[in-house]
Amino acid sequence: MLKFSHVSTHYGPIQALDDVSLHVEEGEIVSLIGANGAGKTTLLMTLCGEPRASQGDIYLAEQSITHWQTSLIMRSGVAIVPEGRRIFSRLTVEENLYMGAFFATVSEKIELTQQMFDLFPRLKERRGQRAGTMSGGEQQMLAVARALMSQPKLLLLDEPSLGLAPIIIAQIFATIERLRRDGMTIFLVEQNANQALKLADRGYVLENGRIVLEDSGEALLSNPQVQSAYLGG
Ligand code: ATP
C-alpha cells in the first residue's frame, strides 16, 4: 500500500532523512520507533508532501506520489493524526469531527459522525463540549476520530501516546488494534517502543534519519540492540 524507496529529506543544509526505504502492506500495523530528533515526524510529513523528498520516491498503491500536492495525497486515502493532536480547541467535539470530513457532503458528515460516536462513546457524551476543555486522552481520541472522518485507507499516527497516563495509553493502543481488526492499515510512529512493537506486525528503527533495523514486531522486541537503546534493558 505504501512504499518509500531510497528517500532523503533536507531542511536547507540539514539532512533529516537519509536513504529511507520501507513498506507497509494492506491490513498491517507497521511501527517506526526512534529517539527524539531521529526524523520520525519528518518521515510522516515527507509522505504528506511537506517537506518534499529531496531524493527517492514514495508510492501509494503502486503509484508515485513523490511530487503530489498534500491535498491530493490526502484525497487519495491518507489521513494523519499529528503529533500534539492539533485539535481545534475552541470548536466543539462535533465541529472538530466535521473538519475531518473535508470532502464529504452534509449527510455523509452526519453519518460518519454517528459512526465515530459508535466507535468512541465518550465523544458522543461530549459532542457539544469545546475540545480544548477535554482531557489529553479524550483529545487524542478526538484526533483519531477526526482523521477517520476522511475514511482513509492508510492511517498515520505520530506519537499518539505522548504525554498521556499509562491507563490512557493502553486505551489508545487498544483502539489502534480495534481499527486494524476492522481492516485499517496503520503506520505508527512512536517513542514508546515497547507498546508500539507489541502491537506491530513489523517495525523499523530510525536513527539519525536512517533505517538501522527492520523486522517483525516480536523479533525487534527481543533484539538486544533494541532492548538496550529503546526498552531500558
Ligand atoms: P521528535 O520525537 O522530537 O518529534 P522526530 O524523530 O520526529 O523527533 P524530527 O522532528 O523529524 O524528529 O526531526 C529530525 C531532524 O530534523 C532534527 O534534527 C530536527 O532538528 C530537524 N528538523 C525538524 N524540523 C525542522 C525544520 N522545520 N527546520 C529545520 N530542521 C528541522
Provide a quick synopsis of the model.
By secondary structure, the chain is of the alpha/beta class. Helix content is 38%, strand content 27%.
Shape: globular
**Beta content:** 25-35%
> What is the topology, as strand order, of the major beta sheet?
6-7-8-3-9-10
Radius of gyration of CA atoms, rounded to a whole number: 17 Å
| Major sheet summary line | 6 strands, mixed
Report the end-to-end length measured between terminal Cα atoms.
34 Å
Task: Name the poorly predicted regions.
Answer: none
Structural class: alpha/beta
Tally of extended strands?
10
Sequence of secondary-structure elements: EEEHEEHEHHHHEHEHEEHH
Helix content: 25-40%
Counting DSSP H or I runs of 4 or more residues, the number of helices is: 10
In round numbers, the mean pLDDT is 94
Ions and ligands? adenosine-5'-triphosphate
Please characterize this protein's 3D structure.
The strands form two sheets. The protein has a six-stranded mixed beta sheet with strand order 6-7-8-3-9-10, with helices on both faces. It has a four-stranded antiparallel beta sheet with strand order 2-1-4-5, with helices on one face. The longest helix is centred in the C-terminal third of the chain and has 16 residues, at 166-181. The protein is globular, with a radius of gyration of 17 Å. With 233 residues, the chain is α/β, with parallel strands linked by helices. It is built from ten helices and ten strands. It has helices spanning 40-47, 70-75, 93-100, 106-119, 121-125, 136-148, 166-181, 193-199, 217-221, 224-230; strands at residues 2-11, 14-24, 29-33, 55-60, 63-64, 78-81, 154-158, 185-190, 202-207, 210-216. The site of adenosine-5'-triphosphate has 13 residues, from strand 2 and helix 1.
